[in-house]
Amino acid sequence: MRLYDHNIKAGNQGDLIKHPALMAALSALGEAHAGSEFNYIDLFAGYSINPLLEGNEWQQGIGQIHQTLKAVQNKDLQNYRDWYLSRPALSGGVYPRSALIASDTLSARGITASMTLYDISAPALESLKRCFGGTHHSIVPCPALPEDRAISTSDFIFIDPPGLYSEQNPTFPHLNYLLEFEQRMARPAVMFWLPITGTGETGGETELSQQSVQQLRGAGYQVDKVRWADHQRTVGCIIATRLPASAQQRVSDAIKAVTELTGWQLQYY
Fold this sequence. Notes:
- With 269 residues, the protein is α/β, with parallel strands linked by helices.
- The protein has one domain (13-260): Rossmann fold (3-Layer(aba) Sandwich), CATH 3.40.50.150.
- Helices cover 35% and strands 20% of the residues.
- The protein has eight helices and ten strands.
- The chain has helices at residues 13-30, 75-84, 98-108, 122-132, 149-152, 175-183, 207-218, 245-262; strands at 37-42, 49-51, 94-96, 112-118, 138-140, 156-159, 190-197, 222-227, 234-242, 265-268.
- The strands form two sheets. An eight-stranded mixed sheet has the order 5-4-1-6-7-9-8-10, with helices on both faces. A two-stranded antiparallel sheet has the order 2-3.
- A hairpin with a 6-residue loop joins strand 8 (222-227) and strand 9 (234-242).
- Helix 1 packs parallel to helix 3 and helix 1 (13-30) packs antiparallel against helix 8 (245-262).
- Residues 1-5 have low confidence and may be disordered.
């Protein structure tokens, strides 16, 4: 798979949807794991933190709600703002990635997390080692395989690939392949984040994005879709979940709360 650097994109619109939703899912799942170990898997972990530099995409994402005076009733979005966006200025600081946000969320619930973090990028692996190295967590410097033992014993799998297979990007994974991971879990609990790619001047969505939504729905996933643009390469994203009903509702509520702050378009499937 092609190496992927998330520094420019850290804190962008997709992260502003993704991370409160991830916190919501893990908070809900964690209620059933209080006092016990929780096995968390990230198939494409990336960095543990990224810098927030002027001119990068965070200004269209977390920058849109930083220091907003609008009230937030959703507890997962409120925790996200309090934990990561409460400092006076964002520029020049850092932004946590999904693995660190997951660790914080589970720790706040009093849950002992056992994290298995996969990646193939040398800089990303070094970042993960600085944050999680020397602990009981596992950092795996190779692509995840459905038959890995960690998959069968996992309580939650987060899947945020750098892209999906297409003729233009043949090194990226097929969605069919990524769906195999849930089949190896004793109790499937999975969250996908995928971009919605645009067709340019028409303001539509690419066939790959449309097919991905249809395939995930056909596989039994709940899909929450957010659009924030029309004529860009990435016009939105989806969160697709296979979770207990209460956790799925909590994810949807967190996403809705973000769109109420930003004015972005939200659809449920």
